[in-house]
Amino acid sequence: MGMEKTSQFKALDERYYMPAFSRDIAIVKGEGSKVWDADGREYIDCVAGIAVCSTGHCHPAVVKAICDQAHQLIHCSNLYYVPHQGEMAQKIVEITGMHKTFFSNSGAEATDAALKLARVRTGRKKFVAFTHGFHGRTVGSLAVTHKPSIREPFEPLGIIKTFVEYGDVDALRKVVDKETAGVFVEPIQGEAGVIIPPDSFIEGIREICDETGALMIVDEVQTGMGRTGKWLAMQHTGVTPDVVTLAKGIASGFPMGAIAAREGLEFKKGEHGSTFAGGPLACAAALATIGVIEKILPDVSRKGARFADGLKKYNPRVRGLMIGITIGDKCPEIQKKCAEQGVLINCAADGNLRLVPPLTITDAEIDQVVRVIDGAIGQVML
Ligand code: PLP
């Protein structure tokens, strides 16, 4: 299938690339929910670039939008009005219910933008985030990411923050005060392994933010853009945040992120910027992506329910097509077995299997994934 065999990828990677990742598969082609590796093996992809390729791999509408725009104009700078940027901004405002948006190139940069916006508009310096939360790896976003093993080697990171147990409203009430600029929260924790909190937790954060004037900043980088069966996971609750961050599924794999904020919260001239963010190709890819998701969104919850039913003996946590199963130490072995049998899944933190397949996945593919996972768990856990 591919021009290069996996062994050639491995040799170059080991010799020339800094070894920050552990990996052993070289994916060279994708179509819909399927991908193929360099040795021609086929997989159903329930990783999907970690919740990125929501429209499936190489969706024809997205490919066409990128190619058409590439022939017209690849880049021009935010010194000028940018093709498709305005329409894309309008879409983000419509789907989030926020007032205005600003683009970035990644989720971490969206977190950074939210940190800056909260600092500059509230005039406050302190932040609160939650245990097991993940908001990115830049210096700013890493500061509010909890996982000590990835954050602590880089401290001090220059952001004043406190971590509170995810789900604990009383503990939050004790630390948020009139000096708190913002509270960062994932409505469902993704990297932690698909941890779904009760609505009362989300409602409690809103109440505490209202009492203190801290901004409620909801990280929808992984949960947004239809992943949970609604445009935002927050839309399953009755709560409206002050700021929302997006990335991952926003442009089907073309790098892009965004923040959207309520009225009264916007960057003023010179307060923020980026060479690439909101460029013509990203916006074209994102608009095409949204067009596809608009059509498939009504079916996402039903597909999630099919997974939930197929995997019910493992007590999965399911919200749309975001699925977590607690496995424990054997998680990597199950991941490996599934790959051997043609299904890509991955282990998030704490022994949790995570499935975030394309939103376009078919019922037959779901049933095949369920059979493979069931078989792998059976073999490994014996
Ligand atoms: N926020 C959440 C909830 C994420 O899951 C991630 C990435 O996994 C990020 C932020 C960072 O996004 P990126 O890797 O695009 O910088």
| The CATH architecture of the domain at 61-290 | 3-Layer(aba) Sandwich
Largest beta-sheet details: 7 strands, mixed
| β-strand number | 15
Could you say which overall geometry the principal axes of the C-alpha atoms support? Answer: globular
Distance between the termini: 35 Å
CATH superfamily of the domain at 61-290: Type I PLP-dependent aspartate aminotransferase-like (Major domain)
Instruction: Please mark out the parts with pLDDT under 50 across 5 or more consecutive residues, or reply none.
Output: none
In round numbers, the mean pLDDT is 97
Draw up the topology in text.
Layout: H1 6-16, E1 27-31, E2 34-37, E3 42-45, H2 48-51, H3 60-72, H4 85-96, E4 100-104, H5 107-122, E5 126-130, H6 139-143, H7 148-151, E6 160-164, H8 169-175, E7 180-185, H9 199-212, E8 215-219, E9 243-246, E10 257-261, H10 280-296, H11 300-310, E11 317-319, E12 322-326, H12 331-340, E13 343-344, E14 346-348, E15 352-355, H13 363-380
Parallel strand pairs: 3-13, 5-6, 5-7, 7-8, 8-9
Antiparallel strand pairs: 1-2, 2-3, 4-10, 9-10, 11-12, 12-15, 14-15
The structure holds pyridoxal-5'-phosphate (PLP).
Pyridoxal-5'-phosphate binds next to helix 5.
